[in-house]
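Problem: given the chain below (668 residues), write out its structure.
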Amino acid sequence: MTRLVEASGAAKKSLAFRLNQLAETAGLETHYTHTSWTNWMKRGTRPAQAVRPLIAQVLEERLGRPVSLAEIDLDHDPGVDSGIGLEFPRELGTAVQIATRFWSQVDRRDIRGPGVAVANYNTPVRRWLALPADDSAASRSPGAFRRVGKADVVELLETAEQARQWDSRYGGGNWRTSQLTVCLKERAAPLLHGSYSDAVGRRLFTATAQLARLAGWTAFDNGDHANAQRHYIQALRQARAAGDVQLGGYVLTCMALQCSLGGFHDDAIDMADSAFHRVGGNATPRVKGFFKLIESRIWARSGNARMADGALATAERLLDAASSYTGDDPAWIDFFDEHRLASDAIEIHRDLGRPREAQRWNELAAMPTDTFARAYALRQSVLGSTYLQGYQPEPLDKRLVDTLLVPHTHAVLRACPDLIPGAHSAGKGDRDMATDVDLAIERILRDELTRATPGIGVQGEEEGGPTSGTRWVIDPVDGTANLTHDIPLTGISLALVVDEDPLLGVIALPQLGRTYSAADGLGACRDGHPIRIAGPARLDEAIVAVGDYGTGPDAAARNAAMLAIHAALAPRAQRIRMLGSAAADLALLADSALGASITLGNRTWDMAAGAVIAREAGANVTDLDGTDHTTASRCTIAAAPALIEDILDIVQRASAINSFTGEEVVAC
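Solution.
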């Protein structure tokens, strides 16, 4: 709904006025306002069933085209138990029942989703602030299945610590952190239903709170904000049962960060500030300093420089004080040191439009890239975006490539394990398709890029986005037909486009275990090592890749030209290949495996990343008429320098004979 309302360009007040008119005509008494539309779009509330077709009609009138209930996500309601995991019971026994029931159903599709309903946090936050610790954590039920001991708790705590370390290295998409929900369901839940003393119970709830917080963080990291919210709420309730005020405050700051990234800055600031003041003297300076750091990040996102600077200064002061406290900090805060402070300060100053200050903080942000690979990648991504704010250090060297490319390469590769052969597909048009893998990877990358570079739009093949200006461009799976038929050659493609010129490109070919990257003027790499086209010198020594035949109503002229190109190449090229992935074609050309790549089309998500990689490796990349290739070009013709004239001659002759101009909109 949000996307269509924005596309309509209409004010919410005018939409509400028209909706009330239609409702009156239909015999309904309504009093909707602009706030009603905001609640439907951003806060997770659902309009009445009778009104939903009228909402679609309002948008149809504005957009001048049909709008279905499915398109605005009003064709269904979540299951009857859609509130599962959102409760924060006062009584501990009920809280255990609620948490374990949620963990047993956490894989249900109807409780997943990209949006956060901030209203769901109201009751949990209010109740935790009123009473952050239960009086007792003992369970002596005669029906308990077993007695829980210290060894059981230690096992859970060790699992939580291992998952936290893996998250620091690889982010929320790795296989070990994905086992958190399994551990909660199969190991933690039975223990909570056991029998235990108050002392053991406190430690048990501390362990389950840590596991639930990590499960929330990894869901958040993967763009599943609906599940993340449920995990956070249950983590907060478990922390209250543990009497662990510091951990409860930590969970609350995670909630605050999620709300801020969703645009709910006022709610987020209230949460972060409440966490800081509620823990009072029950938290170490390091823990309280981290709470203030998160508060500073939220103030910066809201554009309040004075409050952001004040919170950052307090965080810095508390971190300095933490050096005199030895052995008092909980293990889960060990990541917060001067390097993490500096890393977040880069983002704070970036969000406040201070690229020079961000660069200065970067000099203090060194951290082990093996232990904190994810944090390093995000920091480099944020730092890279400061170059787009107009500040560039001199000289412009390889560091810029690493700053802008490395983090997004990590993001792409983290998505790669989800490339599952035999993925479920849905048709997009004449023999064109998308799979659930396409959608999942695009959402992961979109969320990662939006979080790391909030000032830059994201255009994806599956879910759209800005088509002009500075933007990231994603093709989540290039070669979907290969994927669905278990042919092991697909690409994940990511580019930064500025003024219709692709300036940065990353292509991952996960089945080959390769990642290609390039930046304008700074060369191309395979897996971090520079590459340069080494030949061939003659067409009869070259393997030439040709794009797929077109589908759809406008493909006839293109396919006739394709047949003519094949006929012309057959007696001259060493071999012709149709690999089914434009990203793979251009990456392998850059790597000297191919001599040329011919695609009679130029969809930005298909070609942008590959074009800059091939160009920076030394290939000639042109349009059909031989002019330099941009995202506005009609076709994408790329070849080793010695072959470009022969390739262009073949393509131009075949196109002219078959009246193909490159202007048709075709599937690539």
